[in-house]
């Protein structure tokens, strides 16, 4: 045990220099070694796998990969809370069963109304306002809302081991991007503070927006129609659109990330695919093949043969969430 | 004259330190002073107009702003040459008057077929191949093609004063983006070498692309349908989508840039709008209100009252194109 802690905490190089462990919340094991070996290979000018800094692009899914996604995607929690808040001021907005369910915080009730009901709730919270009004709403919600089971701020439901990975990659010359099925305007509100990721390195789904010049000057208005669904085969498309290069490292947690991981590992040079596997029912949640959130089937079936790395949360991560400030 | 050269070439600071002129190809005058005064104000921590480096976003149109666009948009010249090249191998592809005109290099003939004919020529050159095949075609074309009147490579038809402005802004902590009506995949082929602008800082129009897994692995295929038209009111929308912040400096040359310049100068903080005005029929071209390329009407009508800066190519620029390597 003492020896294990020592090797996890520090690496003794042949020169005799002891470097701090770049991933202290990752237990020693295959997953941690695979990540560190990959980073060492692509950053070593003497390696066949060397990649110039400009091409060290790393992309990460957000829900279930960088932060939690249970018991419901946090952006849905936001939408539900927004509907409830507006209904307090004006109950007349509750024109459907889905909206009424949302106002009561009844997510099951919303889902019972089908996809249309969910889209109605999302549209109420996300459209009909300017991008800056929307972002202010998200910021206010993050300040007020607390996760139902942990009592944490939602932007503190982030994974400490992944924060360490992001920092480590940036220290090694990588650019770190979020490529999420979640909303681009939503994630940009907290990406910098939560992950150290600049807003221009956030890629996500989006609604149509329109440039409208009113009495108070121009504004970008969010419309109810979907502009781009950044999921599944949409992720490589969005990566090309926003980044313009194929990544060499990709992290995800569900089949919605399969194509992104496939694209990342299909280049001529080196590529690493990492799946975060939710296996820890005590410290987080345990789920993969079943349910409606973060479903992982094809990834589990094909990932191992493709040489993809699986971070088993229960065994590979010594810590899940960062220490809170409060 | 001697004194003018001296003041243009170097600034004598009160400390006695002589700094090189950051914009040597700009003649002394209102436009140059307006740009330098703005940059000094937003980078001086003691100034009311100070802007933190993370918010120093500058955006530039490409055609007619960073490189020339006469006698025809260079991307159309590319498309015409591509059709001609493919028709040599397979004349059967010339199934319409527009394509036949393209194969003969007859741009007037293409335009005579209307918008539909032009789109057909563009689709032939831009769709039905992977993004990487397309980029290789553009790179090959840039190596072979020469501008009809100057004999230069097309990527050497760039404006020396604007190259200096891009470098100056980056030296002063700005991020410099291209926001062009031209194709994003097209511009990314030369943005780094021509302008020092990384591919992830190129925003442009685009076709729909699809992720397709074939025998040779996955590829991003370019489809004939338009995904986004990055022109006029589309420019602020694309800026929000790709960059996520409002710029504080924008440069353009036509009414297609009006909304981008308006958006840039409508923020709470400082904002500078710069129009490149094509006034030099001898060294470049002289055009604004008339024609079908780079039409500038509203900008000329409203820009001066809005405090926008006009770079008069004939009087403000001592050099137009950089010295060629050949
Ligand atoms: Ca996910
Ligand atoms: Ca232009």
TrEMBL record, chains A, B:
Keywords: Signal
Pfam families: HAD
SUPFAM superfamilies reported in the protein's UniProt record: HAD-like
Tagged with keyword tRNA-binding: no
Domain of life: Bacteria
Gene3D superfamilies per UniProt: HAD superfamily/HAD-like
InterPro entries: HAD-like_sf, HAD_sf
Signal peptide (residue range): 1-20
The protein, known as: Phosphoserine phosphatase
Naturally occurring in which organism (per UniProt): Aliiruegeria haliotis
